[in-house]
Amino acid sequence: MSIQDMDEQTLRAADMPFTATSASGQVMPLTARVSRISVDNRTEYVRLALAYRSSQLLLFTSILLLSSTLLFHYVFSL
Asked: How far apart are CA 36 and CA 55, in angstroms?
């Protein structure tokens, strides 16, 4: 069941933190204002969690592209 589909009682019982896990496995708070996901803030949680994970993907993709470019230049400069 997704966070968006949970009723208030289920969401409260799940007691989920307002955090996201980074690509390296670190738990990162998404905001300093909120500590737990609730019915009132779950839409903001989903938005911030998706934005955070998207930024992680963009960073990883940029590093991969840069590494590939450097490797290409190295191989063809031999």
From this structure: 22
Q: What is the pLDDT of residue 73?
A: 82
In angstroms, the CA 22 to CA 60 distance is 11
The whole domain housing 54 covers 3-75
Number of compact structural domains in the chain:
1
Q: What's the rounded Cα separation, in Å, for the pair 61 and 6? A: 33
Distance of CA 37 to the CA centre of its chain: 15
pLDDT tens digits along 1-57? 789 899 999 999 999 999 999 988 999 999 999 999 999 999 999 999 999 999 999
